[in-house]
Amino acid sequence: MIEFINVNKTYTNNIKALQNINLKINQGEFVAIIGLSGAGKSTLLRCINRMHDITSGKIMMNQVEVNAIRGSDVRKLRKRVGMIFQSFNLITRTTVLKNVLVSFVPELTLWRKVTGVFTKGQKIKALTALDQVGILDKAYVRVNQLSGGQQQRVALARTLAQNPEIILADEPIASLDPVTSRHVMDDLKRINQAMNISVIMNIHHVEIALEYANRIIGVREGQIIFDGNSTEVTPVVLKHIYGDSTEYKVNENTGETAYV
Ligand SMILES: Nc1ncnc2c1ncn2[C@@H]1O[C@H](COP(=O)(O)OP(=O)(O)OP(=O)(O)O)[C@@H](O)[C@H]1O
């Protein structure tokens, strides 16, 4: 379980990105964090794996106080909490397999680091992860020869190879077309359900968030202003989260919602 207890984050420029966040996320949940640009979604997500440090309060992951750990404990935390990004963060000029193996570098002995020789067990884990996201046949293809959706799957495999308890996904489909976006979302949902890995995602596509996530957290100006089941997200709730923003529109005739 992840728990935020009275968490605040103020950046050095004095922007209060998170204000008094209290939140519990149980193992195996699929959570989408939604809200306007600048609302604090990325900051919220990135405090969980210590990409950002909080200013006050506490973040607990099971028995570990995330904001109190240092050095090798942070590395251990990042093994338990995988992350994928909008821009995939891959080394595009090398193979898919090597990109997945990169996740094992911190575990290598010095001579293996120097020689770049991974263990048989690591190679098996990497190939298994590629199989889990359906791109085992691409293992020896260079990443720059893959589509965006395939690249996001490589990133997902790199995370899965570490056997994480949680996957943080920061706008994972923002740069993908609608069809490919659904493939990536399907992968995440399958992994969430079959492996009981929690998925916590920032996403601007509200329709997709409602379709795939079980729980929606609405953030506005650094505060959680909605936290509930995706079935409880009505047009009124969306208006509360997005205000009269042009980023999100409700069709008054059909009640359908659309991101614009
Ligand atoms: N490194 C930083 N230094 C200073 N201010 C920052 C930093 N990162 C974010 N902010 C500010 O903190 C606030 C929250 O930003 P954050 O990136 O968490 O929002 P977001 O909801 O994820 O936005 P987007 O949807 O555009 O990614 C914004 O006002 C932003 O300008």
Automatic annotation (TrEMBL):
Name of the protein in its database record: Phosphonate ABC transporter ATP-binding protein
Molecular-function annotations in GO: ATP binding
ABC transporter domain mapped to chain residues: 2-246
Entries under NCBIfam families matching the protein: ABC_phnC
Keywords for the protein's UniProt record, in alphabetical order: ATP-binding, Cell membrane, Membrane, Nucleotide-binding, Phosphonate transport, Translocase, Transport
SUPFAM superfamilies: P-loop containing nucleoside triphosphate hydrolases
PANTHER family referenced in this protein's UniProt entry, alphabetically: AMINO ACID IMPORT ATP-BINDING PROTEIN, PHOSPHONATES IMPORT ATP-BINDING PROTEIN PHNC
Highest rank taxon of the organism: Bacteria
UniProt KW ATP-binding keyword: yes
InterPro entries to which the protein is assigned, alphabetical: AAA+_ATPase, ABC_transporter-like_ATP-bd, ABC_transporter-like_CS, ABC_transpr_PhnC, MetN_ABC_transporter-like, P-loop_NTPase
Record keyword Transport present: yes
